[in-house]
Amino acid sequence: MSRMQVSATFSNLVNYPRELVRTVKKEIPAVTKQVRFNAGLRYNERHELVRTGNSGQPEYVGDPTPELDAAWDELMGAVNIFITAEEEPGLGGGLPTVFHDLHCLNMIRQNLHYYWDYYPHNNASILKPHLDHCIDSIRLSLMCSGDMTVAPIIWDYNKGRFIPDFEVHHTCRDYEALKEWTLARDSEHEERWRENAARLHAEGH
């Protein structure tokens, strides 16, 4: 069976490759560690918004430099990986989500100017440190969660080439449940915070 055939075959599978999950669990130590995120923001004595907390660590944001690009190159794992026949027959390869997402974040970093004319209300004095903070925060969160779900490589008959299939199942937390929980504790928006505060107080919190 050709690579074209096996990739097309896998594209029709429904279940995520469980043997690959077993391999990941076996070969990657099942340990966690405490990591202090260093993407802080503070106002200095001149009331300017500045980034803090990255002393002695590689820089992943800021004005473009060869050193900055090299730091991102060093940060990345393999975006495309081999999948063995024992792990999932007919797959051959795929893209681990965490490294694809970091790749996408780096692309966003490199093109931050793209919509500036469309959003003129952004305050230029705080925009740059705020964007740098956002990129670093998302980078750290992606690395922390480390979603290793693989996007399989499939054959695109229209294009006549192999492409990644990102429409795969992930094991996710219930985002809607998370969202509803936070809305019930919203302390910012006028239409919710008074009611939320009163309810929480009545519940003895």
UniProtKB/TrEMBL annotation:
Q: What InterPro entries does this protein map onto?
A: UstYa-like
Q: In which pathway does it act?
A: Mycotoxin biosynthesis
Q: Name one GO biological process term.
A: mycotoxin biosynthetic process
- Pfam families named in the record: UstYa
What are the TM regions of this chain, as residue ranges? none
- Family assignment? Belongs to the ustYa family.
Q: What is this protein called?
A: Tat pathway signal sequence
Q: Which organism is it from?
A: Aspergillus leporis
